[in-house]
Amino acid sequence: MFTRIDHVGIAVTDLDEAVALYRDVYGFEVVHVGVVEEQGVREAMLRTNATGDGACSYLQLLEPTRADSPVGKFLAKNGPGLHHLAFGTANIEAAAASVTEQGLRVLYPEPKAGSMGSRITFVHPKDGAGVLVELVEPAQVAAAAR
Ligand code: V0V
Ligand code: CO
What we know:
alpha+beta; binds ligand V0V; 8-stranded mixed beta sheet; binds cobalt (II) ion
């Protein structure tokens, strides 16, 4: 059902500073910087590898665009750090339905727009052993299915 860890989401207070750390110190390639307004984030994707299904794994650095957003609230409570773990799937509707059948709360009735043309939803952290899990269907998977 899930084919890889698509990305690890990290909450940061200063996106440019965090990008410099992961790019210049750790050497990861920045493939995308953008705003997902619905989620209240300015975010950067840094590629960490390529996998056999044509998709990659990334680090996602997340700076809030407003204080009352999920990442804004998280930062106020915890400070910067690991925010979520995203599992990649070729079929987000099927994956969300399966997780829902197992009794976990999936946060959106329909997937929403994510970074780089992906479709995303989330599993509530209280149902996921304290980890906020994102389900993500990357854009290239959706395009290949058309
Ligand atoms: C909150 N909690 C977390 C957590 N955020 N636990 C683990 N990891 C996190 N990231 C805990 C929090 O400590 C509370 O526990 C409890 O959940 C309720 O939290 P809250 O602060 O009262 O906040 P809520 O309930 O208003 O919101 C929490 C949820 C919210 C998870 C529902 O953050 C949400 O809707 N997240 C999904 C959207 C999201 O995170 N978007 C940003 C990434 P106690 O204190 O009660 O024990 S956007 C993204 O990844 C994109 C665009 C992409 O990848 O493409
Ligand atoms: Co994410």
